[in-house]
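User: Can you predict the 3D structure of START domain-containing protein? Sequence below.
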Amino acid sequence: MEMKDRHSSFLAMEKSSSLLEAMVDLSANMVPLWVAVLIGLFVGWIWKPRWVSLLFLGVRGRHRLVWTSPPGLGVRRFWIALTASVTAFQMLKECWLKFKAWKWPQTQSPEGIEERERPLQATDSGAVNLARLAVGNEDLRDLHRRYYYKDGGLPWELMMERSIPGMTYQAWRREPQELKGPTEYRSLTIFEDAAPEMVKDFYWDDEFRSNWDDMIIYMKSLESCAETGAEIAHWVRKFPFFCSDREYLIGRRIFESGGMYFCITKGVPYSKVPRQKRPRRVDVYASSWIVRAVESPQTGQLTACEVTFFHSEDMGIQRDIAKLGVRQGMWNCVRKMEPGFRKYMVHRKASATLSFSASMAQLVTRVPPSCFNESDMTAWKDEGNEGAQRNNQNGKGWKWIVVGGAVVLACGLDKGIVGKILVFGLARRLSKLGRRL
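Assistant: Sure. Here are the predicted structure tokens for START domain-containing protein:
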């Protein structure tokens, strides 16, 4: 019996010692964590906002206010309660406005939106084809510079590399210069056994897009140009549940140079579609891609198609949240392109007629490769901008004729200073009239 008692007491001591050692080890491991928590609280209290001090002062002095205020001073208590309520309301309002501006930043101020839409409002009543003027040669040159890393932007940061049978994908991103504007994304997609003409039509065909892009809930062509293939389209895209849907007014056009297709889409102002609260309109939007044939890694022949994609848009969401959402949802959206493209190839073989968007994709503006040289940039002019440039030149010619005539009248007919002032004033009014004409 004594031996059993000694053995049980020894086991109990051993268990207690092991438990004590575990507690000591746990405490030792928790010391750095508690030190970090205390340092964080100390630093946070030093750098706390002003409203935290006011709130702490109100909570600390509430009991003292209740117990030290003599009974019967109802007016004083009412006044203190009213002042505290107004202060708390202002504090909560300021906090809500700061949180709202942080999570849902405004893309543009109302003044900026009005200035942006004013040029198109002035030409809506005329016979000018707005789709033809939506995308021009400057957009093409800008895309060409981005493709060859000549735009002077920041270096690209690799985000992901993925591949599935029939397609490989790489994606990069970078911040804009001086942190003005949305985050920019660049991707490289290679389709096996694909022709550039078919890939170009696949990206352009809005009528078929709903078969592989589940974010599009509405699309309509608003205006188009039968000569250049330029178009203005109206899109509504579905966003996650915590955001409202987004509305896009997109101008787009396809150029071809040296066997490469430059497909350009960007946000454009269009006053014929009124702005509404929902869906929220995205004003800053640029999404373009370059399609060309490349050698297949498997066969070594020009049977693959390379798509270089550039995208940036101001969705009205806080920058870090937008970057996290794009990173998490990018591959889920991209991997649907490969099976969607194979379905599109079958659809094109079975269909005898092209959809409206696909037929517009056949109207490609061909430009010589020399137009991208820095020395030859001023020599090449886009067809869509010739009319506007001609009107500006005519207006300037009329202005100089009027001013020259005024100088002749002022110097030849009247020698007095008053007469010269009157003649120049009349010439100024006539020049303004010439600009309006």
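The first strand starts at residue 157 and ends at 164. The CA atoms of residues 141 and 372 lie 7 Å apart.
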